[in-house]
Amino acid sequence: MSFVQNFPLFTIILSLVCAVISFAANDRWARGLTLFLLSASIIMQASLLAYCARNHTSYAYMMGHYPAPWGNEITVGVLESFMALLFAAVMLMSVLGGMPRIRRDIPEHRMRLYWVMIDLAHVALLALCYTNDIFTAYVFIEVLTIASCCLLAARDGGRPLLAAVRYMIFSLVGSGLFLIGVIFTYSITGQLLFPQLKESIALLWADGTYRFSMTVAIGLMVGGLAIKSGLFPFHFWMPDTYGRATPASAGILSGVVSKGYIFLLIKIIYQVIGIEVFAASGIQDLLLVLGIGGMVVCSISAIQTGRLRTMIAYSSGAQIGYIYMGLGMGTQAALLAALLQIVAHAVTKPMLFLSGAGLAGASGGHQDFRSLRGAAHRAPAAGVLFTIGALSMVGIPIFAGFIPKLYFATAAAATAGWQVWAVWLALGVSTVLNVLYFLYTAMLIWLPEETEHAQRPKRFSPLPTAGLAAMNLAVGLGSAAVTELFAMGMGLFCG
């Protein structure tokens, strides 16, 4: 085995070690260890991605060499390593960009805990990317849930704590449903590892045995992850959660954590259930309908709200709807579009939360749109970065957000029946709604200043946020290379 093939295990162990040391260290050391961890993870995941892409290969190995179903197996390929790299990079940029607000929003006695939770969230995301064991996936779902709730609750004040409790309730419901689905699946198949599970499910479905039970189990697992990722109509926790979190936490939760759950769902659909069984169960069509519903309903909610961060939060629900629409279409082309949407949203949403915080800081801390008029003149770097993010969300060419919309439209053209017109209509309506609230906001912040709310801008770190903007443009301008890489990864991933 090549040395680089051990990097998934190394980064998981390193994350756990950093979390333990950070718990015992002071705030400064804890912060430094977290930044070191994320930087080292980026290097290792990039090396692993290069190895898998260069050799056009994926591989699996059993940790501890225990036989199934007790052994914990991990699988590494182009898609898995790319997502792990994406998550680490976005987390690092979010933390660096939100550092001034972290120091201001997080009480000193909770600061060390905050960095420990960043480490645990990172290790959980890595595990969700690489694990080949469905019960291990559940364990790290819970780790990620705890870490996310603590990131919310770390901010001082009653409202953030209330938001954390609400998020915890929804998350535990989702985790519970997923666990029940895993228990059902194991009781029917006697397997926990993905390849064995897929084989058993295919055989049982083919001879008609336990079809109803398997449909229930599939529905529970999919429903649990849908709740945790914020699919309509389970998105009601989003506005308060993202709106009350410190900008770095909001960027991580929206841009990374929700995508970790969705990528795990993609793995389960293609590597556990099988796309044919998933389509036959009827749940695939339900995801398509709910995804389209989320695109429209969440966008309308974003238009109706009067607060910037709440608007950005509702838009997250709309953008997640795009991903589920792609999963509901059930084709390879639609999966490619969904993966591109994951990337576009992951690099854009933290940029909007961070730059939005910079604009609010130049407007007396106010989030209402009236106060934000002319804010870009007081904080030009934040204004430019927010505008880039807004243009990407609308789907303007050269930005990352344009690419998945184009691929969704072309993927729909290859389908038959009502799906073609439903997807095209949803794309058109959603784009118009995005224009109404994102372009409106982008123009509002560049209008002549409202001197009533003008204030000396609070400290804003433009360089890390500009790094996210650069990643956005790189995906938009280099879409051909990204698409080619994903096509290779899908061939290995989907088997």
Architecture overview:
- The protein is mainly alpha-helical and 495 residues long.
- The protein has a domain of 199 residues.
- It has 22 helices and two strands.
- Strands 1-2 form a two-stranded antiparallel ribbon.
- A hairpin with an 8-residue loop joins strand 1 and strand 2.
- Helix 5 runs parallel beside helix 11, helix 14 runs antiparallel to helix 20 and helix 15 packs antiparallel against helix 18.
- The radius of gyration is 22 Å and the shape is globular.
- The mean pLDDT is 88.
The coarse overall form would be globular
Estimate the mean pLDDT confidence: 88
Strand content: under 5%
Helix/strand class: mainly alpha
Fraction of helical residues: over 70%
> Can you list the strand order of the major beta sheet?
1-2
